[in-house]
Design brief:
The chain is mostly helical. The protein has three domains: 43 residues, Arc Repressor Mutant, subunit A (Orthogonal Bundle); 110 residues, no CATH class; 92 residues, no CATH class. Helices cover 56% and strands 0% of the residues. It is elongated, with a radius of gyration of 23 Å. It starts with 18 loop residues before the first helix and ends with a helix. It binds a DNA duplex through helix 3 and helix 6.
DNA sequence: AAATCTGCCAACCGCCTCGCT
DNA sequence: TAGCGAGGCGGTTGGCAGATT
């Protein structure tokens, strides 16, 4: 039998992406947005499968990605979240705007696991290694039958125990519950900018507001659906042009510092258009 | 200087979930 | 309600770079 492949892989390219492919994908998405990943490679002129394009965009090309190594503070947050969520990397990554689940997963597997082991903690249970067996026995005794309900119970037990754990057994290693929700101002600001650029916000409303207040109004959550078309925010007056131009320039400057290549031709074109139309 | 080892991370694979018909 | 397809997710791997022998 076998499962149907996600796409026809005959003649499709695999392996590392070239700069040219990155340009094609980036320009296509910025121009057209994402409606159907399966169609993206065809329309963008790429010999890749849709899944590959999606992964490349999410893990590498997305303009809101935060570059650089994870900080110790972020590591601590990951440890705490992992203790409650397990290997649900996407859920964990959702607490770190600009970080990808792949990045966090890699970091966990290559560094944090070792760090925990060095501290004498089991990376799976987050408990001192010698306590693991006792806990397992306890679960067996309480939940001898249903495996799914056992999982659920284990999860809830884990949550409770970790909350205590964090505050008693390992003072200073974990942060308080409410601190997990904190996000970097820098990242949030960048996300806000990006959402504005992509037209997630009501531009008319935005233009009517004091420019200083708009950067604090967005949700830190990042939504790509139907939001990646800068033409949606094409200005219609001189005033809008100026605001738009300032904004785009700021945004390009802020993003440019951590991009591996000069990948914002489209936005630069947009800037040229704005300059010329004044 | 060459061979081998180790760590890191981008990318792939295949299963799961969800929405649509 | 079942079947199907697309997107999402987590586990795993391949290859590169730097370190070590």
């Amino acid at each position: 039998m076998g499962r149907q492949p996600c796409c026809d892989k005959i003649g499709l390219k695999r392996g590392p992406w070239t700069i040219e492919e990155d340009h094609k994908l980036m320009n296509f998405i910025l121009n057209n947005g994402i409606h159907c990943w399966r169609m993206v490679p065809k329309l963008a002129g790429l010999l890749r499968c849709g899944k590959s394009c999606r992964l490349r965009w999410i893990n590498y090309l997305r303009p809101d990605l935060k570059r650089g190594a994870l900080t110790e503070m972020e590591e601590n947050q990951i440890i705490q979240l992992h203790s409650r969520l397990g290997n649900r990397w996407s859920k964990i990554a959702a607490h770190f705007p600009g970080r990808t689940d792949n990045e966090i997963k890699n970091h966990w597997n290559t560094r944090i696991k070792k760090r925990l082991k060095q501290l004498g903690l089991d990376p799976v249970t987050h408990k001192p290694i010698e306590q693991k067996e006792k806990t397992d026995e306890k679960l067996e005794a309480v939940l001898p039958e249903s495996s799914s309900s056992k999982d659920e119970a284990a999860e809830s037990l884990e949550v409770k125990s970790m909350d205590n754990h964090a505050q008693t057994d390992f003072p200073g290693k974990y942060m308080k519950q409410d601190e997990v929700e904190l996000t970097s101002d820098e990242t949030t600001s960048l996300l806000n900018s990006y959402e504005m650029l992509c037209g997630n916000l009501d531009v008319g409303l935005w233009l009517n507001q004091d420019a200083n207040t708009t950067t604090n109004t967005c949700s830190p959550s990042f939504s790509m659906e139907g939001s990646l078309n800068p033409s949606m925010v094409k200005p219609s007056s001189l005033q809008e042009n100026t605001l738009q131009q300032n904004f785009l320039q700021q945004w390009v400057n802020s993003v440019d510092s951590f991009l591996p290549w000069d990948g914002f031709n489209h936005i630069e074109e947009e800037l040229l258009f704005l300059e010329n139309s004044q």
